[in-house]
Amino acid sequence: MMSHWIIAPVVLPAMIASLIVLFARHHLRAQRIAGVVGSAALVAISIALLHASTLHDPEVYFLGDWPAPFGIVLVLDRLSAMMVALTAFLALIIQFYVIGTGWDARGKHFQALLQFQVMGICGAFLTGDAFNLFVFFEVLLIASYGLMVHAGGRERLRAGVQYVAFNLVGSTLFLFALATIYAVTGTLNMADLAVKVATLPAGNSALIRVAGVLMIMVFAIKGALVPLQFWLPGTYANAPGPVAALFAVMTKVGAYAVIRMFTLIFPPTVAATGGLFADLLLPAAIATLILGAVGIIGATTLSRLAAFAAITSMGTVFIAVSAFTPQATAAALYYMVHSTLAGALLFLIADLVAARRTDGSLRAQRPAIAQAGLIASVFFIAAIAMAGMPPLSGFVGKLLILDAMRDQAPLIWSIVLGTSLMMMIGFARAGSTLFWNVTADPAAPHPPQALAFAAVFALIASMVALTLGAGPVTDWLNQTATALHTPAAYIDANRLGMTP
Amino acid sequence: MMRRLFPHPFLSVTLFVVWFLLVNELKIGSAVLALFLAIIIPLLTAPYWPNTAIVKSMPGLIGYFFLVCWDVIVANIQVAKIILFMPADQIRSAWIPVPIELRTPEAIAILSGTITMTPGTVTADISDCGRVLLVHALHAPDPDAVRDDIKARYETRLKRIFE
Amino acid sequence: MIDLTLALIVALPFIGALLTSLSIRAGRDICALTAGAVSGLALLLLALHAPAVLAGQVVVTRIDWLPGLGLNANFMLDGLGLLFAGMILGIGVLVIIYARFYLAESDPMGRFYAFIMLFQGAMVGIVLSDNILLLLIFWELTSLSSFLLIGYWSHLPEGRQGARMALTVTGAGGLAMIAGMLILGNIAGSYDLSVILTQRDAIQASDWYLPALLLILIGAFTKSAQFPFHFWLPHAMAAPTPVSAYLHSATMVKAGIFLMARMWPVLSGTDAWFILVTTTGLVTMLLGAKIALFKTDLKAVLAYSTVSHLGLITMLLGIGTKAAASVAVFHIINHATFKAALFMTAGIVDHAAHTRDLQRLGGLRHLMPVTFAIASIAALSMAGLPPFNGFLSKELMLEEAAHTTWFNSPWLLGVLATCGALLSVGYSFRFLSAAFFGPARSDYPDHPHDPGFGLWFAPALLAGLVIVVGVLPMTTAAWLVDSATTAVTGAPFTVKISHWHGLSAPALWMSIGAIGGGMMIVGAHARLTRLWQATPRPDAKRLFDAIIEPFAALAQRLTDALHDGALTRYIAIATLTIVAAGLWAFSGGNHAPGTRAATDVPFAAGAGFIVLVAAVIAIVVVHRDRLLSLVLVGVIGLFISVGFAWFAAPDLALTQITVEVVTVLLMLIALRFLPARTPQESSLPRKLRDALIAGVSGVAAASLTYALMLRDAAFPVISGFHLAQSKPGAGGTNAVNTIIVDFRGYDTFGEIIVLGIAALVIYALTEALLAPGHANTRLMPLWPAGNRAGDRHPIMMVVATRFLLPIAMMVGVFIFLRGHNMPGGGFVAGLIFAIALLLQYIASGFAWSEARQRVSYHAIIGSGMLIAGMAGAGAWLFGLPFLTSGFEYVDLWPLEKFELATAAIFDLGVFLTVLGAVMLALSSLSRFAIRAGDRTNTQAFDIDPSPGGA
Amino acid sequence: MMELLIAITVGLLTAAGIYLMLRQRTFPVIVGLSLLTYAVNVFIFASGRLAIGLPPIIRDGAMGYTDPLPQALVLTAIVISFGMTAVILIMALGSYLEAGDDKVDAPDQGAAQ
Amino acid sequence: MILSYALDFALGSFALAWLMNLWLLMRGAGIVDRILAVDTMVVNSIALIILYGIRSGSPLNFEAVILFSMTGFVGTVAYAKYLTRGNIIE
Amino acid sequence: MTLLDHIAEVVIAGLLVTGGIFGLIGSYGLLRLRMPMQRLHAPTKATTIGVGSALFASMLTYAFLKVTPSGEELLVIGFLFVTAPVTALFLAKAHLHLTVPRSEVPPTGTAKPWATFSTDTSDEFR
Ligand code: NA
Ligand code: NA
Prior knowledge:
By secondary structure, chain A is mostly helical. Chain A has 19 helices and 2 strands.
């Protein structure tokens, strides 16, 4: 039904970026116009795709008109449509923030790299081919490397080298996993993999388990799961504010990949792998949540605090994912959307503060900052959202997760609620240092940057909408989760049986 | 008009021949494509090769090429003998400055290339004024003989071809 | 009767919060007016429902929000709700008025009223919630808004710390309660109180009852500052007095009481409830009163007295009988009236005498008669003296205590309750005597006098209530108590309140004893104070900090230690994790060894392998000499390329060798600016550790490779299709190339984008580094050290590269055109062109070559990507998916049949992107050298052999 | 036999690559990364199993073909890793110029305070 | 028949040449000698691929050989220029 | 097999053997010759005769035994012939700059020094 529109979220940003590189290399205004038009168009397209994916079963787009599993396919289902829409929406908001604060003027090619990053992320969400997922991981990664060191700077570059080196280990690992999967199953199409892994002859279980575990390690690096999360704080804290905000969706690509791959290809019903992945995922997710919460209390700067907040979000999401039940997956998806918005908001605020305060330090008393009242209130809102306190979507998300994981209540509830308390303490201490414990000197003046605040309020509004609309949203997500856990429709859409 | 279309006639010929060596087939289609490329590419790369030396006598160049081939084979055998049989202390290596009258860069390049390709002698450097080549001979009991042989055998021919 | 006004009542204060933060612009009066009006309107709406509720009806509002989870915006109004909502809104209005005059000019009033209204909305939300999850939301909101209110005077350290402590304790309680409420909802099958309150037996029978009870009580006790969670309340006194009056006397601290009352029907009646609640209540009553007796700060005295009275109410709820519940309700009303009045008078005294320290106050009855009158009425009622309302509820409380056996002793509870009453008499009288009696002091800063009408009106009204309810309890309060008690106990109840119960009533004597004892304590206060100072008293604040601060310090040390930027440790941990997980996974499955025949090893291949192995080992050994390790990387790349050619992968050999060359050039340009040697830094143990990790990973990788190579795939590989369809389907015999540009062209599309982005990133970073700044200044002095050979652009190299450039282009075009059928394609062609151009840069120099670069590399990259994209999108015109390629054979006499394939256009895009990307990357890197002070040349070679030359 | 040699090659390249990545300077880390890339490229190639003398070029009368798909994947991997190597190289250079040392393990922002 | 013997001999000798180059590379000679050794390895590789092409009869490796010959020298020149000038593009 | 093929086979075998021998000599010379500059001469042997004969052998094989003429070998020889002198020159300059003692090298006989030894960078600005 959506036919060619399915690939639009990939081709559109690619072409816009190419046009920028070709024609608008030195004209920032033209770049901005192209960037915003592109992002806005992408939002419109993604809404249409979301609508289509709601009405119909998963729809497959056969690239090059080659049948699956031989050619590469894109699969539009609710999950991918949702994630594309989330990315498009976030990218548009960040566009406004960037233009509002003039971040893109501090280096070259920001707008082009932003479009490429969106292309990579959308490509990763839409692809139905395992190797193509690797390719688009690399697209979004290399664009993120560029964005991360945008405008240079000593700390940023050092953190950049670490970020790239660690993620290259991840990329290499991804290739090891893909080659193993191909060597064992002989295919790369995800739907075909699902069929073949389910009917894998006995002697192959050891190797497919290795492939599965290597795959989950790759997504664990992307999703910052302990013990593969060390790279994140240094990277996110040193990245430019709006870039770190965009990275909030990048960690979610890791979570998306785990959900997609381990409901479609390695569900617990597969004899060879069984509960292998849940056994790995749950302890790691719990450790991630705790480490993140401790990090929020221990963070010495606001941007590092925001980075550890992002880690807690991933811990929470993966706790829900590790249950591998439709209800838990729906809760995970809800919390994924929430934490993307909340994470992005927190990074934007960290940037607003850093721009107005000599630094983001949480251990030193500084004079009050410009627009302190406004920034303090949005910080308060972001803190509530991220700590999962009412009345925002974080609370609803955590309630959904607690409810979904009732049968492991003593362990999961105490950790989720305990870490929420720790987060509350961390945020209260940070807020108190940033906005209350200020010296008497007058605030240094700073341009109001209305557009930037508009972006911040847009994020807040989206979270409020997510809260108020929690009823219909959770219904939609429950249906999505159920579809994910019964992937027959996804597999059939690939029309595997048909000989060309 | 010919000058503008063929800034490097020798180059265009070479390219035409190279294409056929690549495609290994004598077909009209390839010929048309080869001709087209033989014209376009020299035009495209003209700025990279300003004031090209004009080959005055094409047969001279071809003759020179076969001469070098022969010299390479002969000298190779000599040097092979030195490596296999001559004890290390008997080898008399020597640095030989070879003053040259050639003025066109292409000619100088071909001369130093020839010297290097004929085993036993290697062009190591050129003087800062571009008038003298520094040649290292593997075994040259009589350095002057080597110098004179190079000048007589190769330089005179190149002077006829290029100047 | 379904009615949306309840939702409106709850929403109004929140709307008020918004309005006040906006209306402050119109001045402080307007702002106070809006706050007062909004609260008043809410109170009015509530009053409209009062008659129906008092008649026993329960008003309900149902708005679906998250039915799937059971969290809905359901509200209900019953007697209990009415009582509390009335109290919250009523006292709210009074506090708003009082605050208008209390706040100084410098205090931002808009923010104050916004926070107060936020708090008010949250409190009303709690008392009107039918859905317990909704109650939780408002519950945590009270903690959050109290945090803002306590921290209102953010410049005061005690304000900040008090706010954080309150938030931590009440927040933690709230979180515990979430678990409790979820358990309760699960047992009862719904989160709506209207359902839960009917499930008493199911809940009390469930083995999850005790944990739920405990968790809910933690929530209640933390909010109502019951022992052992009472320590945060005094530190909340740092808040402005209206906040203390409103939050810490009338409303917030009563939320816990409200919750116990609301849950009374299902939770109470069990031994656990009785022991836990009654004991906590009693201990808190006694402890609070004792501490209040010796506090010197007026607001601290009042705060601890509040704690004590809340303990009293908790004890009554704990007793579990309907009568006790009714007394609890009655005392809630009475306490609200006299405590709010006292707090306000304390504010007035503080305003007038500029101190709240009882030791520096005295004799104010002469100077502030009105305040004295109000304070004494309220204080005497607090002490429980007739004829005030405090006496009535205290009497009933003593009555209940006397008739309750507690830890199987019938009289102990009575005695302790009397001690509580005795202590409250003590601190009430001490308050009055210290502040108002004794000689009028002369050392007041500026002559204290009664405040304006606005400040004393509110406390006076409350004092009036104290008298009226005391004198005519049945007419003024009984109806409200009955309605609330009915809501609490779940059964109709009518209370009999009277001053005189006859001589035989034990309560009478207990009261007399309490008052007598209280008098004596006041008399002996000086000696008792010294005794109190002598006993070691745990300072709650130090205790709290002793837990939080070291934890925060530990958190920081741990976090910074773990995430200290030690990439090598990160990678070591990651590697070990991956290998361990891989081994663990492998051991869990069964592995049937392979059946493929092993291929033999010819001598040449063996020799190649030996060289490769030697090079890899050598690179580790000499890695500190960076140029040499680059040479060895070149060797490894070479032998892998030869390996690819040997094992029938010509395309790979082409690509590997060309990429190899460009990588070497890149590394060499960068090495010019990096130190030539890697210093010896790792200790031996560290090297062994790293070697071990590397070794384990190597063995794992090798065994995985070996395991794969000797086994066939479990299913026929999909590439069978590619081989079959390569010629007919994609029009090319080179299956690898047809896969790259056609079957999996989408991979290649992504891949050239990666390359394009890489070049853009390198360009952007070069610009950033060359811009004036730190990096740039460091570049300037990097003039190559000392002995540099002459002759920058040797003639032979220039002539050779000039000759090679066109020929290389011919080879490039050849490889581009035949890629479809034989090894080759856009990548390799692009790399060949790039290498040929780079040779010009190496031979004739950067400036000379850049000057001849007519088309910018950016444009080449951009157009390459566009062409590839358009080639892919071209298929849309025919209604075919992206990247569908078409081909047909063209017969043009006299030419032989040749093939036109759209894939070639895509491959052209690939070609241009690769060419542009490689050139942009290397030219950007080269600019560092130019920037570092080398002078550029306009002539191709330095030595001019021409006749006219030097 | 040949499979064993290729397995050893992959193992050695991986081991050397990881050892170098654990050194404390950016240059050995980058060299380590390229060795790791070689290792995985050979590994992907090996996943197509060995077929000496059977290049995946369709021609009449061929006894069979090497699996072309891993070769295509390796090509993609080679080009992408080249892009990545170029980027990390410029970043390492930039970090050295900005910070004055080419250490990889540097005091992170957090610990500095 | 003699063709396969000759081929084996040639393959063997160039492989042996490889090993000799390796020996020079490993023997701790000067950096210039090592670069020379690597350059010779490239040339020996070209020979071996050509010989393997003759053995397997497939003309498919010609593109590889052309590129080896075209690009092999770039590396050597770059290393040498780095040693003499300290920079390769200036 | 026609007579011509037999002759071709013998010629090709001969070429292969000579190629092998000269290839060996080239690399053996690298080890045996002690002076660095001497070593530079060895590979020119392998380049010319060694690979040259292997390439010719391949050309003849395809021309006669496989009846599909192939010219690529000539191209490879051409590239080797063009690039070998450049590598030799640069390696020699490297030796001159790093290993060869200045005293060993005779003067140019003109006013200017050898290019590698010149420290006058004025000519670099034209
Ligand atoms: Na020579
Ligand atoms: Na590719």
